[in-house]
Design goal:
Largest sheet of chain A: none
Radius of gyration of chain B: 23 Å
Helix content of chain A: over 70%
Order of helices and strands of chain B: HHHHHHHHHHHHH
Shape of chain A: globular
Number of strands of chain B: 0
Oligomer: heterodimer
Membrane topology (chain A): Multi-pass membrane protein
Strand content of chain A: under 5%
InterPro entries (chain A): MetI-like, MetI-like_sf
Number of helices of chain A: 13
Shape of chain B: globular
Number of helices of chain B: 13
CATH class of chain A: Mainly Alpha
Order of helices and strands of chain A: HHHHHHHHHHHHH
Largest interface: A-B, 102 and 100 residues
Subcellular location (chain A): Cell membrane
GO cellular component, one term (chain A): plasma membrane
Pfam families (chain A): BPD_transp_1
Distance between the termini of chain A: 39 Å
Strand content of chain B: under 5%
Largest sheet of chain B: none
Structural class of chain A: mainly alpha
Chain lengths: 293, 281
């Protein structure tokens, strides 16, 4: 069989997927670009061409800048915490102890819990009147009176980050654990004989095996965290006083609550661009790291 | 592995206990809330374990009496099952031929990266035209419309998983059958697909869980019993004026049950899938 026929056959086999992808991803993306240059409303008016007005308004507005800061803070803090706690948990799960298999099995629990259920659960835990966190902290004497953890701008974002971390650090732990199990035993044994301390052993013997998988986890988690919507919508809807309004929440409000499809689209594309930059930067990083080892 | 001092062993066990508590406490609390009476849940100091186990909310949510809270909840379960089921089947159907083609044809493998790249797109980048498109087609608030939209997530995802599955099946088996005169459809039907059955099952399961978990599009594109999915129903309960927190917790337990059971039973397959691809955020 000739090469061209094989290539043609491959494209034919991919046709159903390509049709679907163009219908539900390609066309909407192109249409979002078109809408972003118009003042279209979500329902009713088609809108007319307004050039770069939407972009100028969005980029100059304080809403966007504040949401960008909130999103970046959420992504950086939650992903950093997830990576650190995840690796520590994986190092623990790689030790010998009774009940290890059961504990490893438990790690799947937060991951399997639907995001909305997780958000609901933490909303109940943080409840200002009857929540378990208030009850526990009062009973051990850490606070005198019940607080509104999600109702105060000073604590809402941190409370959200903790809820997000709890759900996602086990995934990092499982990925890191799989990498740790791939470290050949004779290498760790040899490093022991050579007298390497625990820190040096981690840095020079274990880390090279962890770096690749962790970098992939870091990339995917950062992109996910940057797009965050569900957990915030269910727990705070971006409040109080917009202190937890991330970019995705802002786009939702603009395009669907206020029905401004045009400026919502331009905002969505700016978010897309930022995510793309993140993804490309990370891809370069991953390739560099892969080349280094 | 290494000689362990008693101090180190004690440290390991203490950390293991802490980790177990951190993982279990919130989930256990969700369950305890679901079986506590409203009085226990609003007591100060809080009753951490109910005086009497109250299972009535499970009956309430799963009852199919017309116009009850249960009827709405049960309807949302069926909507979630329908949407996730249809979207998974459709995604697998388009993913199988393309994943095989990409796996066996190096000259088109770049197209896979284009497919995976779309997975990074934030849903907000597609939401407005999808909303207008569904409205135009009369598919807003319809399980079919939502299942169609879910292909934006599931189609790239299953193609990616299946491609690596096909990669692990040696080409030589197919070449041998071809030399024996088998046609392509026979090779796929009789040799490749049966060999890929476990991968296809895992991919389908992953896709189903993703759709079951989805919230953003469901929130935008559904509005009542006809199409509202479980995640939206729970968010409604959590954000609404329901004063019985135990009822919200019960809904959470019921929604979490299928994925948690799948997660625990299928652990090995899920973990190997997770760690090879690092999927699902």
């Amino acid at each position: 069989m000739s090469g061209t026929w094989i290539t043609t056959r491959a494209w034919l086999l991919m046709l159903p997927l390509l049709v679907v992808m163009i219908a539900v991803i390609g066309w909407p993306l192109v249409d979002t670009v078109r809408l972003s240059f118009t003042d279209a409303k979500l329902v009713g008016t088609e809108g007319s061409f307004v050039g770069l007005d939407n972009y100028a308004k969005v980029l100059g507005g304080s809403n966007f800048q504040r949401a960008l800061v909130t999103t970046t803070w959420f992504a950086v803090v939650s992903v950093t915490a997830e990576m650190v706690i995840g690796v520590l948990a994986a190092l623990l799960l790689n030790q010998q102890f009774r009940g290890r298999t059961a504990l490893r099995a438990l790690m799947i629990l937060p991951w399997a819990l639907p995001t909305v259920v997780n958000a609901t659960l933490w909303r109940l835990i943080y409840n200002p009147e009857y929540g378990a966190l208030n009850a526990a902290l009062t009973q051990i004497g850490l606070i005198d009176s019940y607080r509104s953890w999600l109702g105060e701008p000073s604590s809402a974002l941190t409370a959200l980050i903790i809820a997000d971390c709890w759900k996602n650090f086990p995934l990092v732990a499982l990925i890191a654990l799989a990498a740790l199990q791939a470290v050949p035993r004779d290498i760790t044994a040899a490093s022991l004989v050579d007298g390497a301390g625990p820190f040096n052993r981690f840095r020079y013997v274990i880390m090279p095996y962890l770096a690749g998988p962790l970098l992939v986890a870091l990339v995917l988690r950062t992109i996910e965290a940057f797009k965050v919507f569900d957990i915030i919508w269910v727990m705070t809807r971006g409040g109080p006083a917009n202190s937890t309004r991330t970019l995705s929440i802002l786009v939702y409000q603009e395009a669907f609550s206020f029905q401004r499809a045009g400026s919502g689209a331009s905002l969505a594309l700016i978010v897309t661009l930022l995510v793309t930059i993140l993804a490309v930067a990370y891809a370069a990083l991953v390739r560099k790291a892969a080349g280094a080892t | 592995m290494e000689r362990q001092s008693p101090l180190f062993t004690a440290f390991v066990y203490a950390s293991a206990l802490l980790l177990a508590a951190v993982i279990l406490a919130p989930v256990l609390w969700l369950f305890i809330m679901s079986i506590s009476s409203a009085a226990d849940l609003s007591a100060k100091p809080l009753n951490w374990w109910p005086d009497e186990i109250d299972l009535s909310r499970y009956g309430l949510l799963l009852s199919t009496l017309e116009n009850s809270a249960g009827a709405a909840f049960v309807a949302s379960i069926f909507n979630s099952l329908k949407v996730a089921g249809m979207a998974t089947l459709a995604a697998i159907a388009v993913a199988i031929p393309s994943a095989w083609a990409v796996s066996r044809t190096p000259s088109v493998s770049w197209s896979l990266y284009a497919v995976i790249a779309t997975y990074m797109l934030p849903p907000v980048a597609l939401a407005v035209p999808l909303y207008m498109g569904l409205a135009y087609l009369g598919l807003l608030n319809s399980v079919f419309g939502l299942a169609l939209v879910y292909l934006t997530i599931l189609a790239p995802f299953t193609t990616w998983l299946l491609k690596s599955g096909f990669d692990s099946i040696p080409k030589e088996i197919e070449s041998a059958a071809m030399i024996d005169g088998a046609r392509l459809d026979q090779i796929l039907r009789l040799i490749t697909l049966p060999l890929a059955a476990p991968v296809m099952a895992t991919s389908a399961l992953f896709a189903f869980l993703l759709a079951w978990d989805e919230f953003f599009y469901a929130l935008l594109f559904t509005s009542d019993l006809r199409a509202k999915t479980l995640t939206v129903a729970i968010a409604d309960l959590a954000g609404g004026r329901v004063s019985d927190y135990g009822l919200i917790a019960t809904a959470g337990v019921l929604a979490a049950l299928p994925p948690v059971l799948i997660g625990l039973v299928m652990q090995k397959a899920l973990i190997s899938g997770l760690t090879s691809g690092g999927v699902k955020g």
